[in-house]
């Protein structure tokens, strides 16, 4: 499809890589949003009565999803998004270089975590 | 002065000294610093600041109380106020950071038109103001109870403190103060929660251990007429739970004071990780809150059930003075408990006191009670400061600078911003003394309005190049008009009558429908009118990629 265009990265402006990057970004986003909806609105609200038939550690399962589980899933979804986007940015050469290296220990540990993930991803 | 009062005063004075000290050290003199902290806040600190900015008096003071009385149905707050961060992280934060200026109206102004900017600025002011009133009231509750003064004076003290550090410092000092406030509020929340969990179940992890008391709590709740604790849809129909949760999520991701926090990071990548840290910090409190609600409710109900009215525990008398607990004068023995004034129950407990009273109810020592009060203040103040900043930037930047004086100097704009902030504090304090509804509800309205106005305009502006100014303006007006009309129709606001809910949709949930209407109107009107210009398409194209220029891709080999 966009094979020929991609050979010429050239100046910005509707090149194939842009469409490809954006398509991958959207695909990741939609996947994560589907999970977001399924866990919160699905397990926590729409099917709460059915799930409440099951009890774990004193918690009716639907109730647990509504008041605990969905929140844990939200945190994980954003983490996955950050790590995946790091990888995508790198793949397409649009990652940001830290102009000022003084972005603190936070950024440093982020980077190492992201790289770890990228390596794992590369093997698969 | 009682021991509890002494400790409360001590905790509040010490923590306030800390905040004002930090504010003073990081005060700023130029607009970049005042509004976006010079884009230089490290990711984790920014996450903690977002957490404090976000977790308001409603989260800290009201939420566990609401959960205690609503049981499952309080899910709307738990999922609604966290799930929005997923939308924010995936749909909004990185793109607005890439575009990166000062305010949210500024983005829609550049993307669409000056008219849309104006509408957005008005909406930002309404939303932030509605929200700030709740914070003032929350701060007032804390002071009035612990210092034994009238709520007016409580609100007055809160306003003075907010005034000092928000007006002085701007975004940079607010950010660092908020990091300190997050620390205070989370410690204040977790210590009593862990202690109570340990005492009742022997497991010091409240998130895990409150499962053990749910059966007992459901049984005793039903006896006292509060409703089966874990059963869904006892207070609201499913459709309403769905709509309210969605409205709070969309509202969260459209709230201007949260969005501008993503402008303060160094990079686009930093804004993504800020969202992660923010939600992680928030989740720490939000997964604890249902446990606090459950434990406190069980303690409370066990403590009063079947007790003669003249032999009630001491916290009842303490809070009666602040008029937040009421014993029915006709009752001899407590056989029913409610959080609603009109229920006619033997004991009426305001949802707003449960967290503040939980250490007392559980019999924890006085320093812990004082710490919780300081935490409640931290939550109210940090959010109020963030909101005031939005009001100030909307007035000074989007109206004054953009509309009236394009050549206003930096110091002149700062002065206008500070005056706007001061004005907002005064009005908010006056309204905060006597708010139109209880704290969490007021906040829910702010969310509905944010959901129905900004969110669709921002998301379509990023993801749909064809979206144009006329469409966005029409959509925002339609969404906001529907939402506000329905709220006024169903609620007593400024003397209007409260009408029946249509199809079970509550005024808190209407924002979802307002957002859907906004989306639909924007799309239809955009399609019917001319597409936006080339430059705008190029601007939208550019915010989709983090780096300014493309480098040789790392994974070039697989192409």
Automatic annotation (TrEMBL), chain A:
Q: Which UniProt keywords apply?
A: Membrane, Transmembrane, Transmembrane helix
Under the heading Pfam families, the entry gives: DUF4212
Note down the stretches annotated as region Disordered: 94-124
Q: Which residue ranges traverse the bilayer?
A: 28-48, 63-83
Any idea where the Sodium symporter small subunit domain is?
19-95
Q: Does the keyword Membrane apply?
A: yes
Task: Specify whether Transmembrane helix is a keyword of the entry.
Answer: yes
Q: Which InterPro entries match?
A: Na_symporter_ssu
Write down what this protein is called.
Answer: Putative solute:sodium symporter small subunit
The protein's organism comes out as Lipingzhangella halophila
TrEMBL record, chain B:
Compartment(s) where it occurs, according to its Swiss-Prot or TrEMBL record: Membrane
A Gene Ontology term for the protein's cellular component: plasma membrane
Topological relation to the membrane, as annotated: Multi-pass membrane protein
Q: What is its main location?
A: membrane
Q: Write out the transmembrane intervals.
A: 6-24, 44-70, 76-95, 115-134, 146-168, 180-200, 241-263, 275-295, 368-393, 414-432, 438-463, 470-489, 509-530
- What family does the Swiss-Prot or TrEMBL record give for this protein? Belongs to the sodium:solute symporter (SSF) (TC 2.A.21) family.
Task: State the protein's name.
Answer: Cation/acetate symporter
| Source organism of this protein record | Lipingzhangella halophila
């Amino acid at each position: 499809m966009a094979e020929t265009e991609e050979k010429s990265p050239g100046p910005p402006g509707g090149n194939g890589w842009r469409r490809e990057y954006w398509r991958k970004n959207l695909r990741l986003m939609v996947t994560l949003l589907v999970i977001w909806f399924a866990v919160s609105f699905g397990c926590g609200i729409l099917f709460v009565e059915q799930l409440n038939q099951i009890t774990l550690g004193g918690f009716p399962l639907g109730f647990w999803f509504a008041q605990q589980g969905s929140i844990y899933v939200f945190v994980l979804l954003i983490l996955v998004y950050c790590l995946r986007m790091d990888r995508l940015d790198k793949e397409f050469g649009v990652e940001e270089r830290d102009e000022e290296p003084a972005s603190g220990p936070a950024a440093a540990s982020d980077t190492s975590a992201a790289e770890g993930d990228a390596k794992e991803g590369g093997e698969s | 002065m009682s021991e509890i009062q002494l400790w409360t005063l001590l905790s509040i004075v010490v923590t306030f000294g800390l905040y004002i000290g930090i504010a003073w050290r990081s005060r700023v003199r130029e607009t970049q610093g005042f509004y976006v902290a010079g884009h230089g806040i490290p990711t984790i600190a920014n996450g903690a600041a977002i957490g404090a900015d976000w977790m308001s008096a409603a989260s800290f003071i009201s939420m566990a109380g609401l959960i205690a009385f609503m049981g499952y149905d309080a899910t709307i707050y738990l999922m609604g106020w966290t799930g929005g961060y997923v939308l924010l992280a995936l749909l909004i934060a990185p793109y607005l950071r890439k575009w990166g200026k000062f305010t949210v109206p500024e983005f829609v102004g550049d993307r669409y038109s000056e008219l849309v900017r104006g509408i957005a600025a008005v909406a930002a002011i309404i939303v932030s103001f509605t929200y700030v009133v709740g914070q003032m009231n929350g701060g007032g509750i804390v002071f009035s109870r612990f210092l034994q003064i009238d709520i007016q004076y409580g609100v007055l003290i809160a306003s003075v403190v907010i005034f000092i550090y928000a007006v002085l410092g701007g975004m940079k000092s607010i950010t660092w103060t908020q990091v300190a406030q997050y620390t205070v509020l989370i410690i204040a929340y977790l210590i009593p929660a862990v202690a109570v969990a340990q005492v009742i179940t022997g497991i010091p992890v409240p998130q895990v251990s409150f499962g053990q008391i749910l059966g007992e709590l459901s049984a005793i709740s039903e006896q006292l007429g509060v409703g089966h604790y874990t059963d869904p849809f006892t207070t609201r129909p499913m459709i309403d739970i769905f709509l309210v949760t969605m409205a709070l999520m969309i509202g969260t991701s459209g709230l201007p004071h949260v969005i501008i926090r993503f402008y303060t990071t160094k990079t686009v990548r930093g804004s993504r990780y800020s969202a992660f840290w923010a939600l992680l910090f928030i989740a720490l409190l939000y997964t604890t809150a249902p446990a606090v609600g459950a434990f406190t409710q069980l303690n409370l109900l066990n403590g009063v059930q079947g007790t003669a009215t003249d032999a009630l525990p001491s916290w009842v008398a303490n809070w009666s003075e602040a008029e937040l607990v009421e014993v029915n004068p006709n009752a001899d023995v407590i056989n029913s408990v409610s959080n609603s004034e009109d229920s006619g129950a033997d004991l009426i407990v305001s949802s707003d006191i449960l967290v503040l009273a939980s250490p007392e109810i559980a019999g924890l020592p006085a320093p812990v009670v004082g710490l919780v009060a300081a935490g409640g203040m931290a939550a109210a103040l940090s959010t109020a400061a963030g909101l005031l900043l939005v009001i100030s930037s909307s007035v000074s930047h989007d109206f004054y600078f953009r509309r009236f004086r394009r050549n206003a100097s930096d110091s002149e704009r700062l002065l206008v911003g500070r005056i706007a902030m001061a004005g907002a504090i005064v009005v908010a304090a006056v309204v905060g003394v006597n708010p139109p509804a209880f704290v969490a509800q007021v906040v829910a309205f702010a969310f509905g309005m944010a959901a129905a106005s900004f969110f669709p305009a921002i998301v379509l502006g990023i993801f749909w190049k064809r979206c144009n100014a006329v469409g966005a303006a029409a959509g925002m007006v339609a969404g906001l008009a529907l939402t506000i009309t329905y709220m006024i129709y169903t609620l007593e606001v400024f003397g209007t009558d409260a009408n029946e809910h249509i199809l079970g949709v509550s005024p808190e949930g209407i924002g979802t429908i307002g957002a859907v209407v906004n989306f639909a109107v924007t799309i239809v009107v955009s399609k019917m009118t001319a597409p936006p210009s080339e430059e705008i398409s190029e601007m939208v194209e550019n915010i989709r990629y983090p780096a300014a220029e493309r480098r040789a891709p790392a994974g070039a080999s697989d192409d």
